[in-house]
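Hi Y.,

Following your request, here is the sequence exactly as I used it, all 120 residues.
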Amino acid sequence: MPRNPEIDAWFAKKQHPLEAAMQAVRKITLGSDRRIRESIKWSTPTYEYEGNIFSFNPSKNFVSLLFHTGAKLPGSYAGLDGDGDTARVMRFSNLADVEARSAELVAVLQAWCAWKDEEL
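Below is the corresponding structure, written out as tokens. Let me know if you'd prefer a different format.
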């Protein structure tokens, strides 16, 4: 999937201290399934396939991914935190954390795409 120039502009403007980790998440996400697209929603990068998968919710201390309907995703994923009925969050503390847990992120993203394919 080609990168969206709007996301490049967002990163250039944001100048986040964990940008390298966020860019790694972006690369992993776009490489996990060619059908995943990126756009700006709610003033932040959002990743989609047959609905919103997750949006960046960055803080100064970690990279947070808000999986909008992550609680409904079939399966169990240790990195998806939360106990509500709908959303789940995945947090990364730095680039090394993203790299160490990249397979987990890919598994969640591929499970999302498979789940949405079943719904079609």
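The chain has four helices and five strands.

Thanks again,
Q.
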